[in-house]
Amino acid sequence: MKIVLGVGGGIAAYKSALLLRLFTEAGHDVRVIPTRASLNFVGAATWEALSHHPVSHDVFDAVDEVQHVRVGQEADLVVIAPATADLMARIAAGRADDLLTSTVLATRAPVVLAPAMHTEMWENPATRANVETLRGRGIAVIEPAVGRLTGTDTGAGRLPDPEAIRDAALAAASEDLDPEPGEGSAAADGTGAPLADRNTPWTGRSVVVTLGGTREPLDPVRYLGNRSSGKQGLAFARALAEQGAEVTVVAGAVEIPLDESLRTLRIGTARELEETLERLVRKERPDAIVMAAAVADFRPARTEASKIKKRDGEDAPQIVLERNPDVIAGLAEARGEGRSPLLVAFAAETGDEHGSVLEYAESKLRRKRVDALCVNEVGLAKGFGADENELTVLFADGADPVHASGPKDEVARAAVTALGRLVSADGAPAPLS
């Protein structure tokens, strides 16, 4: 596949070199088009060495080849990472004042933008309007990650990891190929029809999927959080949508682009998550809640209004913690003896001298009074952020556990299929009301 990799003028441009390597190592032919500003961060020599193609940014280079049109015409996919606020504004305005914007204007290939900028710029009404304009024209603008930005500030606007950008870009290219029914669709199950078009236990069910980590602020700069990437939760959301469910995603901090086809609500803290789920249950009465988010057990008892300073001669501050609400247990208690919504909890566990991973998980299944619990073992080098996972689904009704391993999307499909027994009208132990 012929890919145009556009590079905007932001500090995150260095990550695009890793993205370029991922594309070329997969056998794709990549042409890099940097903006003039981006060359202040990564030089043309780097792009030429990695892509094995000459690099230019001016529409007046190679005029005899009419490259400002030809490159876009020949492309199968255009990916821009980082896409700065200025670059997105120029594309939204239909500008063609350099080789990259001209290429976007001339191409009929899928275009994927990976924004990167400071939080204030990302949230500015002008940027938000430009994003909506671009999406309205069929350009995919993936959500930036939340994390450390240039300097000391943290927030939304961080360029997603190169692997996440690659996956989103190749997915956009795959969708544009418009495969024949039964061909090339990961959602098909061998019958020739995508699962979303077939009757499954999840068809027509309203399901809320929480994913990502919560962040509990200590001061305007620091927070208590965890290493959840959101990958497995998003895979569950997609698997449920494939099987015909109407999915609402409630997302905390993630390191991946979210799926624009899924309704998404954003939260920050455990209390925000609790309030959002209580509102959804009260107003929309979902059939099921899949609690894949990694919710912080504790939060600082006090959030400082200004950054805690490190001063010579002073001891380190003593941070006092207090418990966060147990969100899933609260939902189970609120539903009482009723069976709706169906509740599926997640547990990222580690074993110790007091018990194994599964022993801790079985105890949590009983204590939280949920219908099923998906447990995986985690550690410093396994679980969080990986592309593969091992998951065991435990059932409150005593049914045999279901084990799945492999890529996270395959694990999610296997678990969602197994959980479908709980929403089946045919002898289900916990039918939805």
Attribute tags:
single chain, 21% strand, Rossmann fold, 433 residues, 5-stranded parallel sheet, globular, alpha/beta
In what order do the strands lie side by side in the largest sheet? 12-11-8-13-16-17-18-19
Fraction of helical residues: 25-40%
CATH superfamily of the largest domain: CoaB-like
Mean pLDDT, nearest integer?
84
Question: Could you tell me the radius of gyration in angstroms?
Answer: 24 Å
Categorize the overall geometry. globular
Structural class: alpha/beta
Number of domains as seen in the coordinates = 2
| Terminal residue distance | 49 Å
Total of DSSP H or I helical runs spanning 4+ residues: 13
Strand content: 15-25%
**CATH hierarchy class name of the largest domain:** Alpha Beta
Largest sheet: 8 strands, mixed
Strand segment count:
19
Task: Give unreliable regions as ranges.
Answer: 177-197, 379-383, 425-433
CATH topology of the largest domain, which one? Rossmann fold
Name the CATH architecture of the largest domain. Answer: 3-Layer(aba) Sandwich
Walk me through this protein's architecture:
- With 433 residues, the chain is an alpha/beta fold.
- The chain folds into two domains: 2-176, Flavin prenyltransferase-like (Rossmann fold, 3-Layer(aba) Sandwich), CATH 3.40.50; 195-302 and 317-423, CoaB-like (Rossmann fold, 3-Layer(aba) Sandwich).
- It contains 13 helices and 19 strands.
- It has helices spanning 13-25, 44-51, 67-74, 85-92, 99-106, 119-123, 125-136, 162-176, 231-242, 270-284, 327-335, 357-368, 408-419, and strands at 2-7, 29-34, 77-83, 111-115, 140-141, 145-148, 154-158, 206-211, 216-217, 223-224, 246-251, 263-266, 288-291, 298-300, 321-323, 342-349, 372-377, 388-395, 402-407.
- The strands form five sheets. An eight-stranded mixed sheet has the order 12-11-8-13-16-17-18-19, sandwiched between helices.
- α12 links the parallel β16 and β17.
- α1 packs across α8, α3 (67-74) packs across α5 (99-106) and α9 (231-242) crosses α13.
- The longest helix is centred in the middle third of the chain and has 15 residues, at 162-176.
- The termini are far apart.
